[in-house]
Amino acid sequence: MAEILDGKQTAAEIRAEVARGVAALKRRGAHVRLDVVLVGDDAASATYVRMKQRDSAEVGIESETHRFGADVSREALARLVERLNADDAVSGFFIQLPLPEGLDALPLVSAIDSAKDVDGLSPLSAGRLAVGLPSLLPCTPHGVIQLLKRSRVGMAGREAVVVGRSNLVGKPLAQLLLRENATVTVCHSRTRDLTAATRRAEILVVAAGRRGFIGAEHVREGAVVVDVGIHSKEGGGLTGDVRFEEVEPLASYITPVPGGVGPMTRAMLLHNALEAARATAGG
Question: Among 38, 54, 173, 263, which is 20 to 30 Å from 161 by CA?
Answer without folding.
Answer: 263
